[in-house]
Amino acid sequence: MQQDLPFLAAGGILCFTPLTLYLFWLAAVNRGERPVVVSGVWDFVALLSGICGFILCAGFLLSLTATNANVFRRGGFAGLQNAWANAQLASAITPIAYLLLVGGSSYLTLRSRRNSLAVYNVHPPAVDEVIGRALVRLGLDAKRLGNLWSDHRPLVETSTFSVFSHVTIKILLPDLRLRDELERDLRANLPRVPLGENLGGPWLTTASVSCFISTVCCVVLTFVAAFRR
């Protein structure tokens, strides 16, 4: 167990350092004095950056598991030789397949969030009012049905996460000029609306501090293990 301690501590540093930075940013945004509007693409990039350590560690563990599963198969000397050859092949194929899966999923998510806005720390009904006024200013006779605004075609769709007073706005306008005009209007007016009752803001602060303490503990354990050697 003591021999594994430096590797576990290094894994903890790799996982918790980016997550700590992401959670501190998220806590600051959710406890700010006004709503914050972020591009959907950059919002996902921030999330991906926060969990990148866990993604890398998961890939490493998956590759290690595949290698060990092949090496420790039974079957005599010939079987052991074949298992070793398969282990080398698995150690090469597994991380490549994992990276392709993660990269492909991330790319598709980025494409889906290309025309969206993430609004933090906002009162959700106020967002609906801003969207309705913006569509009127663009001369669009939009009707609202649930979370979707449309005329004869979908125009805007929203999804709300009430615990964090968070609203995601997806702009579905096919006309590029109208889409840009609507986005500019929303970016200009949404920061002026009332703040939401953000029940999750204090929790994010607690989570960020906890991750920071975990990172510091992992750094201390790494130094202790290095000095013992």
Topology:
Layout: H1 5-30, E1 36-39, H2 40-50, H3 52-71, H4 76-112, E2 116-120, H5 124-137, E3 143-145, E4 148-150, E5 154-161, E6 166-171, H6 176-189, H7 201-228
Antiparallel strand pairs: 1-2, 2-6, 3-4, 4-5, 5-6
Helix pairs in contact: 1-2, 1-3, 1-7, 2-4, 3-4, 5-6
What can you tell me about this protein's structure?
This protein is of the alpha+beta class and 229 residues long. It has two domains: 5-33 and 40-113 and 202-228, no CATH class; 117-192, TATA-Binding Protein. It is built from seven helices and six strands; from the N terminus they run H-E-H-H-H-E-H-E-E-E-E-H-H. Strands 1-2-6-5-4-3 form a six-stranded antiparallel β-sheet. A hairpin with a 3-residue loop joins strand 4 and strand 5 (154-161). The longest helix is centred in the middle third of the chain and has 37 residues, at 76-112. Residues 69-81 have low confidence and may be disordered.
- The whole-angstrom Rg is 24 Å
Q: How does the major sheet shape up? A: 6 strands, antiparallel
Count of alpha/pi helices: 7
First and last CA, distance: 15 Å
Counting structural domains, the number is: 2
Shape label: elongated
User: How much of the residues is beta strand, in percent?
Assistant: 5-15%
Query: Which sequence of strands runs across the widest sheet?
Result: 1-2-6-5-4-3
Uncertain runs are 69-81
Number of strands: 6
The residue-averaged pLDDT reads: 84
Query: What is the element string, with H for helices and E for strands?
Result: HEHHHEHEEEEHH
Task: Report the structural category.
Answer: alpha+beta
Which percent range fits the helix content?
Answer: 55-70%
